[in-house]
## 1
Amino acid sequence: MRILSLGAGAIGGYFGGRLAEAGRDVTFLVREKRRKHLTEHGLRIESVFGNFEGSAKAITESEIDGPFDVILLTCKAYDLPSAIDAITPAVGKDTAILPLLNGVAHIDVLNDKFGREKVLGGVAKIAATVTPDGTIKHLNDWRYVTFGEQDGAVTPRVQALADAFDKKSVVAKAVPDILQVMWEKIVHLSTAAGMTCLMRASVGEVARTDEGAAIMTEFLERNAEIAAREGFRPSEGFMAEYRKLFSDKSSAYTASMLRDVERKGPIEADHVLGFMLQKARLHNVDATLHRVVYAHLKSYEQRRAAGRL
């Protein structure tokens, strides 16, 4: 199994690095600066599940030498068009593309470009960052990757990919309901990102206000209704878990999108909240909160683009 990881950052570097550590044939498709660093220093991972330091095969776009069996696509949504251009020469007749992006909107884009049979669904749950010296630092015990075929079949290729991980440093699972998993994740993500960005505060800080918990729960219910009308109603267990989360006055939880805002970086406003606003309107779900959240995030993008942050 030839595996190509687009990027060697926090997500691609961690999952790709663990596959390399397990002896799999992994190549990292990176920019020239990162290729030079990996060639000279190798790949380093620091984690409570064991550190790794070893050589890494790294290439740039011009060095792609034919199709790969699996491509890990770990870019941000706003980089998806350039990422598609980068991986296209590596896609062959039997290639499986595993996108680990937030949301679900990218699936249709990839299906249109490469064909549905080549595109897996997938979600990652991990907290990691790249330190100034290029080390991938694993921040907690999250190291989960879940994926599957869009049609629900547990095929030999998804089972082989799950088996390629070591089960300790990465918990990989091939499932028959990956689209359900992805829709539940965007219900959670759009609620958390929308509310913590709008309020510029953690879940607990919002919940401690008079109206905060009620507003967050209302937004959760709206997002769940959108998923239900798309054919992916969240389970009762899921809803109970997140109703509890968004009422937790002690929670320090913030979405990564808020951290992106706080560092004045680019955000996935269209891919996550814009997408859910479109779906709310399509299905005649009350979109009042979606409109406010989306306008807030797009206003941030306007100020950032004008250099006024």
Note: Residues 178-199 form the longest helix (22 residues).
## 2
Amino acid sequence: MTETRHILSLSGGKDSAALAVYMRDRVPAMEYIFHDTEKELPETYEYLARLEAYLGRTIVRSRPDYGFDKWLDVFGGMIPSSHRRWCTKLLKLKPFESYVGDGPVINYVGLRADEEREGFISKKGNIKTVYPFRDDGLVLTDVLRILEESGLGLPTYTQWGRTRSGCYFCFFQQKIEWVRLKETHPALFEQAKEYEYANKANGNPFYWSGDEPLAELEKPERIKEIKEKWEKGRLKNKNSSKTLVHILGNGEGDDEFESDACTICRV
């Protein structure tokens, strides 16, 4: 009989990192894997390196057969969006199922007890998905405690206001996060902007941030407006219980899709 494998996919975010810490001594044979799109923030790689040192285990880096730029060509320059998540399917889910293979696997996902959304459940019959945090009733404060007690803390990209892991051009970013990306990693912002420009060549442009091109979003007067709106949201939600977007980003979050964000990318 084939032995069951235990696999925990890491996104580079706080929840999957906390779950890895939580499960380290509970499942000694756990396999840790990170699906690398090669479009990640530098802080993500730094966080994974620190987590790897804590676990004392190698985190496997999987890569898709074809990278983002190749698939962008295949899709005719159509960048992904919340309605066209080809990036998740081809750069994250497909490599995961390829790594898993056909033997029996238990897949550990870091969704918490205070989250209503569902995680990715593979259609492959050999994969069983489990949610230890939900089963044990752990919520956001527990995740933050686990990370603090382990010495890992939160990913350093949270220090400049990024609320999620995932590609630097993730379409689930708030507008304030795009502003902060420009201020912190201007070269990455310019690359994201170039991907938008590429779409204009085929007469059917698509933008990362809804219907607003990054070239418009980065204008000084627009940046000022976004920051003012964010500050109002921060003051409004300062003493209320909100999602991670509000806790870390302190924004209003009314123009984003936090509840629909891809779990394999950011949990």
Note: The chain is about 45% helix and 10% strand.
## 3
Amino acid sequence: MILTKERRSMVFRKETFEIVFHYYKCEDSGEQFTTTSLDEVNMNQVYNQYRDKFNIPFSDEIIKIREKYGLSAAKMSEILGFGVNSYRQYEAGEMPSTANAKLIQMVDDPKKFIDMVELCGTLDEKLKEKYIQKAQLLVEERKRNIFNLNFKEYLLGNHLADIYSGYRNPNFEKFTEMVVYFSEKLQPFKTKMNKLLFYADFLMFKTSCFSISGVRYKAIDMGPVPHNFQSIFEFLANKEEIDIYTTEFSQGYTGEQFKARKERPFNASLFSETELEVLEKVSTVFKTTSTNDIIELSHLEEAWKKNEKDKSVISYEYAFELNQI
């Protein structure tokens, strides 16, 4: 049985989407088969494109919106006027209607959330007061932290989830932990760090159709790199998330080496089991790979070859063509 990939069109909710269809093909009979995991990869591509086209939030965004208000999924459904189990089902991956999606996105704004709480006729006054107070605290917290929030958005970008971010919104906290993880495991130089981050995000997408960090990568001369990587790394060093040491080499150039801080351990709780497995695999595969070698390996990837001429932002669809890991 050979794992085969080809472009196919699939229909969902009367919309047609082109995906990289994965299946196994029997060499002898020509029969085609899929597995549960391949079905998920195929359908996730369809669902992701549908969410992107109609601006429907992803499951992780839907969970995050509810959790910041400290509500159960049932209570959030009640406030939004959904069926009692609807919000929980959306968090589990069910696709919201476009109308419900707009309501979910609207209450991401604490001020709009307060409006919805006040309009809810089934909540008692004590609960209304409790939820409104929580939302007001979030409004004040955002005002206090507006500079840091804006600066992090500047560093990673504030784009919506799409194929160029691996269908994740940029997550500065998870990206930071990825840098801490590789600093702790491998103590890489900066150029190798960039490649480790690229392989981790793209391998995760190859596995699940979602990246880890939501970061965009560009194809530059030295290989794929995270958008705005120099400023991000300087920011993390200034915040004492990691240490960066400069080394002078006999060839006349300098290198910046990343090392973990003893008092700043990696926070595994932000990651799923699959994400942790991907980080471990990337760390293991490239543990003894030199910086020059990982540059050469990354230059063998279609993700780099098809984008390096224009130094373009790389579509995560190239994850399906990874051949070095």
Note: The chain has a mean pLDDT of 93.
